[in-house]
Specification:
The protein has about 260 residues and is of the alpha+beta class. It is built from six helices and 16 strands. Strand 9 and strand 10 form a beta hairpin. Bound molecules: 2-oxoglutaric acid.
Length: about 260
Amino acid sequence: MSMQLTQEQLDSYQLNGYLVVEGLLETDEVEGLRTRLRAYTHGGRSQEKIQVQIEPRVRRGELRVDVPGDGIRKIDGLVESDDRFQSLGTNKNILSILERIIGPDIKMFRNAVLLKPPEVGSAKGMHQDSPYWPIRPMELCSCWFAFDDATLENGCMAVIPGSHRWGPQPHINVTDDYVVDPDYYDEADMRLAPVKAGGGLFFHSLLLHYTAPNRSRDWRRAIALSYMSSRSTYTGDGDGPVYTHIQGRTFEGGVR
Ligand SMILES: O=C(O)CCC(=O)C(=O)O
């Protein structure tokens, strides 16, 4: 049996734009994912299709790390190339929750492992995802799945509840980042969304969200699994990429 959302949880997602659901995976499954992830960051394991991004200060030589794996910020594409991550991307609990939020016909827009190495991981400024994603309507849902307990100290997610109902907000470029113009929100409205390892934060692609630097001695490792209804349309140039099909139907004129 897969996990079922209560009506109260669904209402809360719709009102606030996010929902924390603990215990999506068993402890041993999470441990297996952490071990596999470490094989990529510190064990020399690789895949053709993945893309790795380094912490900007490490890349520029402003900050030294003992081993290269301690400076990695992001790994894209593991769901398409690694069996364990593919199982996570199609996990029955995650899909059962998504079905209630975006419907039964689902494609994956992106998957990105987001790493905050201890004392190295930097902040990700306040932003919305949808304004720079070429998908309409702006109604994608991400499951930000935690491999470690995500806490205030190590840079858990912080959100502005209800901001997914504001529509797209103006963003500006700042050093190493692209953020919502600070005139358009009040920091005092920000709420922390800590998640225990094995749980996930489901959030709307227009929700304003932020993560602080990792000021702790522990890793903060998560993966953002972003899904859309297969009815969505691609608004970039050309036909767009063929997005990973997760379940249900595909539609003429919808994303490929
Ligand atoms: O995990 C983080 O530090 C940032 C996550 C984020 O901004 C996102 O998934 O859109």
